[in-house]
């Protein structure tokens, strides 16, 4: 295949992945809608389901049959949503492969902001699929798919760039080592942030229900989300995995690559500074949990601060900084000597 054919394949694969992600989102939303127990069923259950219907059985039997049918429908939609997400992720990978094969010479698909965004969203989806069974992440499906689909749309509409050879300073073995670790950590931090967000959402829901004197276990999509304790533990475990990977990317491979390209380990570049700020926030999160016993709401709020610094480092610096040598998303001509050695 020619380079043009590979690039066209990549563009078509991105579009196809977006369509399949959208279908997966629709299926997950239908799944959530099916979880809403009708008010009539709830009132019958609350009344004990003792009213007769045509002498053929009790209303409680009807409610049981309805609940069983709804459970089967929810289980089917859950499996279908997961399969569509897996298919979209596979097509997503084809788009990355096409970008790398379209370059002359062939290279890893991390030469510009568009390609890094494709890679970051792919890793978020892939980590969700890999951890799906281990951590019972079925509840996270619509959130992950909506996030990936939204960021992909932003990348295609505003960040798309033609395939080009890597800048000289990017053509280094450290590119693979640094970016792979940074992308994996970003994906894991994002999943941990989603768990922290849902912890805050569910805790608020339970608190409001308690204040209104309502049943905290009332049927609804939010009841699919694990208990607060499980959400808290999930967030902690994912952050504990991501932090050393981020440390490796930011404090080890990044400075080594910077020294190779710029003859200095640290340049006070805005991207470097914000990456370090992100590291400090997450270090404080893990330290507070381990020593001060921070759990629940306090830990979740601190995790969201870290998520905010992480994504500002990824998006904000590339768009709002005029001095960063990492701001390769800005449409300007960059001299090869100034080309950023750190693409994350």
Write up what this structure looks like.
This protein is mainly α. It has two domains: 1-48 and 58-166; 172-344, no CATH class. The chain has nine helices and two strands, in the order H-H-E-E-H-H-H-H-H-H-H. The protein has helices spanning 3-34, 39-46, 59-102, 113-131, 141-159, 173-212, 228-262, 270-292, 297-320, and strands at residues 52-53, 57-58. It has a two-stranded antiparallel ribbon with strand order 1-2. The longest helix is centred in the first third of the chain and has 44 residues, at 59-102. The relative contact order is 0.10.
Compute the CA-based radius of gyration.
24 Å
Strand content: under 5%
Structural class of the helices, strands and pairings? mainly alpha
Low-confidence stretches: 42-46, 49-55, 329-344
GO molecular function, one term: heme binding
Pfam families: Cytochrom_C_asm
Transmembrane segments: 12-34, 80-101, 113-131, 138-159, 179-201, 234-258, 273-292, 299-320
Protein name: C-type cytochrome biogenesis protein CcsB
Summary tags:
two-stranded antiparallel sheet, mainly alpha, about 350 residues
């Amino acid at each position: 295949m020619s380079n043009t054919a590979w690039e066209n394949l990549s563009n078509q694969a991105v579009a196809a992945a977006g369509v399949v992600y959208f279908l997966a989102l629709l299926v997950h939303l239908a799944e959530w809608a099916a979880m809403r127990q009708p008010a009539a069923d709830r009132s019958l259950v609350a009344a004990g389901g003792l009213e007769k219907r045509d002498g053929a059985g009790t209303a409680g039997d009807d409610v049981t049959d309805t609940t069983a049918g709804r459970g089967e429908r929810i289980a089917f939609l859950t499996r279908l949503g997961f399969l569509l997400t897996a298919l979209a992720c596979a097509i997503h990978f084809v788009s990355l492969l096409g970008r790398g094969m379209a370059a002359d010479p062939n290279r890893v698909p991390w030469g510009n902001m568009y390609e890094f965004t494709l890679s970051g969203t792919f890793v978020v989806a892939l980590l969700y699929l890999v951890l799906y069974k281990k951590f019972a992440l079925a509840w996270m499906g619509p959130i992950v798919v909506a996030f990936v689909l939204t960021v992909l749309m932003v990348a295609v509409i505003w960040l798309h760039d033609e395939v080009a050879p890597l800048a000289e300073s990017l053509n280094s073995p450290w590119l693979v080592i640094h970016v792979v670790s940074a992308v994996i950590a970003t994906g894991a931090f994002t999943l941990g942030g989603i768990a922290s967000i849902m912890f805050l959402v569910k805790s608020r829901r339970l608190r409001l229900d308690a204040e209104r004197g309502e049943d905290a276990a009332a049927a609804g999509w939010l009841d699919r989300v694990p208990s607060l304790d499980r959400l808290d533990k999930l967030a902690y475990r994912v952050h504990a995995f991501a932090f050393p990977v981020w440390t490796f990317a930011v404090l080890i491979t990044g400075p080594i690559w910077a020294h190779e390209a710029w003859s200095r380990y640290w340049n006070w570049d805005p991207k470097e500074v914000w990456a370090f700020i992100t590291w400090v926030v997450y270090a404080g999160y893990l330290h507070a949990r381990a020593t001060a016993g921070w759990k629940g709401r306090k830990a979740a709020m601190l995790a969201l601060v870290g998520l905010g610094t992480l994504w500002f480092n990824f998006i904000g610096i590339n768009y709002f900084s005029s001095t960063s040598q990492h701001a390769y998303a800005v449409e300007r001509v960059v001299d090869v000597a100034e080309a950023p050695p750190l693409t994350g």
